[in-house]
Structures are given as C-alpha cells and as structure tokens.
Structure prediction request, 181 residues.
Amino acid sequence: MADELLDVVNDEDIVIGQELRSTVHQKGLQHRGVHVFLFSEDGKMLIQKRSADRASSPSMLDCSISEHVQAGESYFEAAMRGMKEEMGVMGIEVKPLGKIKMEYGPNDNEISRIYEGRVKPEQVRFDPVEISEVKYMSLEEIKEGITNEKGMFCGWFVEIMNWYLGQPANLIALDAENSPL
Prediction:
C-alpha cells in the first residue's frame, strides 16, 4: 500500500500538521479516520473480511468501510472515497452517527467519524486486494460474535459496535450523545 499524507490533529480535531501515514503510525500521532456502516434493506450490516496480507488486523472481520482521512480531505469525502475504493459503490446516501476518539492499536490514535447508509448487495464490488470476502450479518449475529468468538472482529470494530449498541466501550464519544441508538 502506498504511503499517504495524513493530517495530524490535536484533541479538538484541529489540524496541526501533516505527515506520511508511516510516520504517523511510527510516532503515534493523532490523525483522522472514518467508518461507514452499510446495511441491506433487511437490516443486515455489510461486513468485510480483511485480506491476510493487511498490516493491521489481517483476516479479521471489520465494518463495511474503514478508511484514513487523507490530508486536506473532509470526513465525508473520505467516506465517499472509501465506499468507492473498498466496495465499488457510489452515490450512497449516508448520515453521520457521531465522532469518537480511540486508540486503535499501538501508536494508532484516531479521531473518527462514523456514518451509516443503505446498500443493495448487487451493487457491491469489493476490492480483492484489501478485502478477501464480504458477508451480511444481523446486529444480533454481530453481538453474539463479539461475545462468543474473541478475535473474530478487529478490536476497533468491537469497541465501535459496543458504542453503537449503547454498551461500555474503550473510546471517547466526542459528540453530545454517547451512542447513536
């Protein structure tokens, strides 16, 4: 994966500099991310299985879209780009659910915005370099997987889902409400 330029942000999410992604993660600099939860018409979430060669959380299940926000890009622009690059979908209407601050892993400190939208499964053409497969899971199936199958989901996805479902989570909600539900 090519190194990309990211905005470095302070705790108020104000840009204080720019660095390459590799430097950001090497030094633990706070940067921006975005996640999109895409649901089918029957209410199941599109879940991606990360490719085995991914540097972070290889072969683990993740939300529909997880993307870094590139330098100069808005959260919304990153969400749109991520949907196109990762799932091959465009023109999906999304609504913001909230903004969080979390340690995603060693030296991976992000402020992230979470979005939600609807997708038709026949529209999805996932990127086989980043994603090995996709599936649709109900919220109940996701909850059961988090509880009963430790290590099945990316650590950040577990925390974001806990927040989404109104459960205790190891993150800081930066919006007025603690959970979108």
Observations:
- The CA atoms of residues 12 and 174 lie 9 Å apart.
- The first strand starts at residue 5 and ends at 9.
